[in-house]
Design brief:
two-stranded antiparallel ribbon; globular; about 65% helix
Length: about 350
């Protein structure tokens, strides 16, 4: 029954995250995560319900890549660019939780910048009626430009790494001194994380659900880090988790809308920005393990194929299809089963990240 009705699994996920924020607010001083989570979820659900017919009327139907699983061809024409409907809600609700914190303006700005890059990419795909929008080089240059502006802003404000940008905190009190290397690392994480979340957006509800889980995990660890936590960035994360929960009301199986690059790039940018400003790169690495696995699966698939090419130009494949979720799908696991499994993996990784928090 669970695999037959996406409402059940999405509702259960929302309940788990709600209970987690309620527990934090009840047990951790200065924690105020439930209100932004719930407000953003309700507003996003309403906006998404209102906006999906408008996207359909604008004929913003997804073009499905021909080399993907054949079962996905029936999804052609489903409205995309759903990130336009919910990301601004998360940013606005998150920003209003602590309007006096200048860091939130920087996080909001880079999130919306990546949303705009994704929107341009999606729009070009739709107008060309192909699954390719911006050229890879053009897309990366725009992402790098937005990331560099954020890093400059954060550097001038003295916000990087929670005030100590030269060191990354690890579990058990360990510290990783990086010095000036934190700046190229920050740029790399922006590029890697935003493209990893983009690659994860391939099944109904997958990226939205995983994003809601990881944002909630980031919020929880920010409040558990001691010294009063970081209520501003934690509440922002809770609001972003809420916006993706609201999005699942229309994106759960069978999806009535896709987030597109518009949403997935913004998701990765927001996670990276929060991690860099709060010395949370290690928690993000652990909690975002599903995103990391999806990205690595693509890299390994391409590397193995090229390394094993024969005289005919064909090589071996490490996975049935990359990203990783397609490997499981082509192995016979129903789409909803893959999604639930990866949601569960994200929840497990969040628990691990909380246990091994710096």
């Amino acid at each position: 029954m669970l695999l037959d009705d996406g409402r059940i699994s999405a509702s259960l996920l929302a309940l788990i995250l709600l209970l987690a924020t309620l527990a934090s607010d009840g047990l951790v001083p200065n924690s105020s995560l439930t209100i932004p989570l719930v407000v953003a979820a309700l507003v996003s659900a309403g906006v998404a319900r209102w906006g999906v017919p408008r996207l359909r009327a604008l004929k913003l139907g997804q073009v499905i890549r021909s080399e993907g699983p054949q079962g996905h061809q029936s999804k052609a024409g489903t409205p995309t660019m759903g990130g336009l409907l919910v990301v601004p809600v998360g940013v606005l609700v998150g920003g209003l939780t602590s309007p006096g914190d200048p860091r939130l303006l920087a996080v909001a700005a880079v999130t919306l910048a990546f949303l705009a890059i994704g929107a341009i990419d999606d729009w070009r795909s739709l107008t060309k009626r192909t699954n390719t929008g911006l050229s890879p080089r053009g897309k990366l240059l725009l992402q790098a430009g937005a990331a560099l502006l954020f890093l400059l802003w954060a550097g001038l404000g003295g916000w990087m790494g929670g005030g100590d940008p030269a060191v990354i905190s690890l579990p058990f009190g360990w510290l990783l001194p990086l010095g000036l290397l934190i700046w190229p690392l920050g740029l790399f994480v922006f590029m890697a994380e935003s493209n990893a979340t983009n690659l994860t957006d391939g099944l109904d509800g997958l990226a939205g659900g995983c994003g809601a889980v990881v944002f909630t995990g980031m919020a929880l660890q920010l409040m558990l880090r001691g010294h009063g936590g970081d209520p501003s960035l934690a509440a922002f994360c809770a609001a972003m988790a809420g916006c993706w929960l609201g999005f699942l009301s229309q994106n759960r199986y069978p999806a009535r809308v896709f987030m597109g690059d518009t949403g997935s790039l913004a998701m990765g940018a927001a996670l990276t920005a929060v991690a860099l400003l709060s010395d949370s790169l290690w928690p993000l690495l652990l909690m975002g393990g599903v995103f990391l696995a999806e990205s690595i699966s693509v890299i390994l698939q391409v590397w193995v194929y090229k390394a094993t090419k024969d005289d005919t130009g064909k090589g071996r494949r490490l996975f049935r299809m990359a990203p990783l979720h397609h490997h499981f799908e082509l192995g016979g696991t129903p789409e909803q089963g893959v999604v639930l499994g990866l949601w569960g993996a994200s929840l497990g990784l969040v628990v691990l990240g909380l246990v091994l928090r710096p």
